């Protein structure tokens, strides 16, 4: 059985994951309209992944005797100055999600809720991977700078990451 404080913290994370999905969806749409098919595909995949993270939390809350709440979301930014800004925001957002997950782990340990702590370890590992991917991509984007040929190749190459 979840304590009320852990249930509340997990429901906050449900909102964060849903807002992440929306933020990445808005980035995908922006890139698609700009003709950046690879970046768009990558961000659509990221949006779907965040939705799956949200659903995983919802199921866990309900299975542990809590009640998952689907709350109102803050609207994401829908305009970006550049594709580089998208990846800067992507990294910033992943760092914020990691901080939130770490806080959840802290609460679970404080309350000696080892089942929730164990469940959250998947998210800890996932965030390590997400941040590493975001940093690597942003490093490549910074190398490209304003080179249109580099952007073309990057957009093509990142699309290959999304083909599964």
Distance between the termini: 38 Å
**Count of individual helical segments:** 5
Helix percentage range? over 70%
SSE succession: HHHHH
DSSP strand (E) fraction? under 5%
Task: Give the number of domains.
Answer: 1
Could you name the CATH homologous superfamily?
Answer: Ferritin, core subunit, four-helix bundle
Uncertain segments: none
* CATH fold call: Ferritin
> Briefly, what CATH class?
Mainly Alpha
Q: Give me the count of strands.
A: 0
Report the average pLDDT across residues: 96
Largest sheet: none
Would you mind describing this structure in some detail?
With 164 residues, the chain is mostly helical. It has a single domain, classed as Up-down Bundle (Ferritin). The chain contains five helices and no strands. The protein is elongated. It starts with a helix and ends with a helix. The model has no long low-confidence stretch (mean pLDDT 96).
């Amino acid at each position: 059985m979840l304590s009320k404080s852990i249930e509340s913290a997990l429901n906050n994370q449900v909102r964060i994951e849903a807002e992440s999905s929306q933020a990445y969806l808005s980035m995908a749409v922006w890139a698609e309209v700009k003709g950046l098919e690879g970046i768009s595909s990558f961000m659509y995949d990221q949006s779907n992944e965040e939705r799956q993270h949200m659903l995983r939390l919802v199921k866990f809350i309900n299975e542990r005797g809590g009640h998952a709440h689907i709350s109102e979301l803050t609207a994401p930014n829908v305009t970006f100055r550049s594709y580089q800004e998208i990846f800067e925001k992507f990294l910033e957002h992943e760092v914020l999600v990691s901080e939130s997950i770490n806080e959840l782990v802290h609460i679970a340990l404080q309350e000696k809720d080892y089942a929730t702590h164990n469940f959250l370890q998947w998210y800890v590992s996932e965030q390590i991977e997400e941040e590493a991917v975001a940093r690597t991509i942003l490093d490549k984007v910074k190398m490209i700078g304003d080179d249109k040929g580099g952007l073309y190749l990057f957009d093509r190459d990142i699309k290959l990451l999304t083909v599964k």
